Amino acid sequence: MSKKYTGVIPPLITPLDTRDNVDEDALRALVEHCIAGGLHGIFVCGTNGEGVQLREGQRTRAAKIAVEQARGRVPVICGAMDTSTRRVIDNVKALEDVGCPCAAITSVYYARHASQEESIRHFAAISRETTAELIAYNMPSMTGLAFLPATVVRISQIERVVGYKDSGTSYGGFLQVRAETDAAFACLMGVTDHAMSALLMGADGFVPVLAPLFPRLFVAAYTAGASGDIVRARRMDALLRETSKILRAAANMTAAAKFAISTLGLCDPRVAAPQEGVSEAEKMCILRQIEQVRQLCAAAQEEWA
């Protein structure tokens, strides 16, 4: 099993038009911007990509656009999360039809009885009926179920499950998964504030939504952590924590991310209905924090500032 899901893999926001359809030109521009900035992969239609909120067919369309624009230069992952095993299988097959090589899958959601054993059966069934590579995606704040480390270890042994993205709150659990899975199994940290310590402890990469805004910073942070440069990693950790304040500047984190990234001039900050975008006061806070990060980078005299 080759390990190709490594480095900085941003969970892209999904640019939308006024009818909540994917804005193709904007998405292509965003993918190209990420690749030009040296980011190592693309993850579309995750949580901040509003994958489960998109209109029928729009998730598959976003995946198709991303795959076409990437042209094999970086790996593309697409969220296939849904409320039942059969629905996820259908989602993965639709992604396969448009050439998307990898699907990220959570536990089922909107199911109060979901369990660890059900999640293992969920992945096993999906693997049997699909051909794409699969990434287990731990997102308990949205699904209501946190994968236990032992569960992820068992899921990692299922055919074509090639990695794990952890956006949960148990940092110790992530380290346990890393320690107890095969070296070829990609372990990706989904919480930016834990990224540097996770990289120093063997994580293969991380998944920061604001990487398109500061691509050189995030790539430099990955390089420091992956190379074991503790002194530089500590400095990067402080900078990455400052980027996280951008997301916390608004009540809706996805809206904050979309507004922040829209300042690049590549896309509109619109979020899927009925969500509200950021308020004028929140916009000002976000813009101030973006400038703060830029000034901190400049003060560090790094070329990625």
Automatic annotation (TrEMBL):
InterPro entries: Aldolase_TIM, DapA-like
GO molecular function list: 4-hydroxy-tetrahydrodipicolinate synthase activity
Keywords, ordered alphabetically: Lyase
Keyword Lyase tagged: yes
SMART domains (UniProt xref): DHDPS (SM01130)
Active site per database record: Y137, K165
Binding-site list for pyruvate: V207
The keyword Oxidoreductase belongs to this UniProt entry's keyword annotation: no
Family: Belongs to the DapA family.
PANTHER family: 4-HYDROXY-2-OXOGLUTARATE ALDOLASE, MITOCHONDRIAL (PTHR12128:SF66), DIHYDRODIPICOLINATE SYNTHASE (PTHR12128)
Protein name (database record): Dihydrodipicolinate synthase family protein
UniProt source species: Candidatus Alectryocaccomicrobium excrementavium
